[in-house]
Fold this sequence. Notes:
- The protein has 286 residues and is mainly β.
- It has helices spanning 32-40, 265-272; strands at residues 24-26, 44-46, 50-52, 56-57, 63-72, 83-94, 97-104, 113-118, 124-129, 139-144, 154-156, 167-173, 177-182, 192-197, 202-203, 207-208, 219-225, 230-235, 244-250, 259-261, 277-278, 283-284.
- The chain is globular, with a radius of gyration of 18 Å.
- It starts with 23 loop residues before the first strand and ends with a strand.
Amino acid sequence: MTRAITYSLTLFIGMFHLGQTMAQNPMKFENNEEIVQNQYNGGSFSTLEGYVPSMSVTQDGNTAYFSSSDQQKPLYGLFSKKEVVHEIYRAERINGKWTNITKLEVCPKYASAKHPTISDDGKRLFFASNMKGSYGKYDIYVADIKPDGSLGVSKNLGPKVNTKEDELYPNLYNGTLLFFASEGRDGYGGLDLYATQVAHNSLTPSVNLGSHINSSRDDYAIQLDIEQGLSYVVSNRGENHTIEQVTIAYRSKPVEDTMVAYNDEDLDKALRTETTYEYTSTSFED
């Protein structure tokens, strides 16, 4: 799938990833505050992967998770070229400044992990990774965050969520409703937005959020405003595939300059479904 190269939006959407950390190595940056603040200020756009979500911050505002990428030479292949590898970091806010930036080893070396987002209670982290054992390209994983800040085993969410293609941009709403983007199912084109209800060790089959929310282009992320009956979708459905925020009304009166979806059954089903399926045993342990 061709990703858009021209972008036109800066948007903060809190996105939440649960990842595992078996080892945590403090990283030294020339300017910690500048690096973290750039992540905090909002999502960004990359010619390599399209929309890049902003970092995910705990409710007390003192811990943040974000991903960054660099070029690394593969372990094997004498003449192999460097490849882009995505890694997840944690930062702490101390005395008003971001510091203690730590790389989280949520997957094996040379594999990628990105799009971290933290649960409301600060006890779980979801993320996307292409580590060995995934069902396809990038899968959604989850890991518990221990009281000391270290992470437990990275658990693959299994075939109810993941496919042989990409699953990206996990985002938890209201504690249990996990939104994510997938291109591995029959949808409306490109990345479509799906939802599943997740409990501590179980989840429901994924539900496509429907044609009112998804488009023939790539739909990356969604944020709900239940009180107003609105959803805010990040998508490259703009002219010339530009990425933009689209406001969509559902179960609500029409709102000026929005697309309207009355009684959206797909989204309503996702909001009401109870969890039944357990995660798989696929995991990463160093």
